[in-house]
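User: Fold this one for me? It's General transcription factor IIH subunit 3.
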Amino acid sequence: MTGDGSVLVMVVDVHPQMAEQPEYIHSYLNSVIAFANYHLAFSRMNKVALIAANHHETRFLYPQPTGEKVDRQKDGRLEYLNHVDESIAEELKDMMCKTQSVKQTESLLSGAICRALLYTKRLEEEETIKKKLNSRILVIKISTDTGSQYLNYINTYLSAQKIGAAIDVCVIGSDCGLLQQGADISGGYYCCLQDVSELLQSLVMMYQPDIATRKKLNAPPPESVDYRAACFCHHTLVDMGNVCSNCLSVYCRTVPLCSTCDVIFQTDRPVMKALKRKK
Ligand SMILES: [Zn+2]
Ligand SMILES: [Zn+2]
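Assistant: Here's what I get for General transcription factor IIH subunit 3.
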């Protein structure tokens, strides 16, 4: 670990579909908060931020915009850690109480990752001696995914790559191709867990070391990355599709007009070329 400590920005998926399994949500949120505490307790120079995303909003659980207000010690716990836990619990309760009917199965994770990038950038600007912070983003996801935020994800990943911010991803349940691409593009870890009971152990073992320390560890080699793109018509990942030559929009089938840039496709072009060659 470097002496300057590291900044960990956690992006946590809190889609209301978790509420269908009460034991699951308990274990999930406990693991997330325990890992945030673990990171802070590891070094007094370490900083943590938590951003939650559900189907209709993203929100900073910690730190809060109103500023720090550390209470007196309770139950023998460290005041600072107690303050972090209470802040997270309060904001989460408020966020979950406002949840109404849910039609969208996917959380707004791409927006939350964007906010995480902006947060680390702002911390760098606020440093008295301008320098690159030892920071990383950790995305923890459970809900099922579609390709509806495909462009937002890709734009976020390219921005992260440009500013040198690694995005780690820990997915519970089935693999998530889009987040796997993000970890690969930005130089972070990707891991898919079968069960939520493995979450805390995996976070501590795999995601605690910072980027500089990881180079010295003998981590398992990355798996092959699913680099499929999502089509712009149905927002599903496609193996093979048509690409607009003007704006690079992807379509899963032949369309007469590009819905992004309004270019009309000349479907008779291959025939014209064939005729020219014969002359
Ligand atoms: Zn389509
Ligand atoms: Zn186009």
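One thing worth pointing out: The pocket of zinc ion (ligand 2) is lined by residues 244, 246-247, 249, 258, 260-261, 263 (CB under 6 Å).
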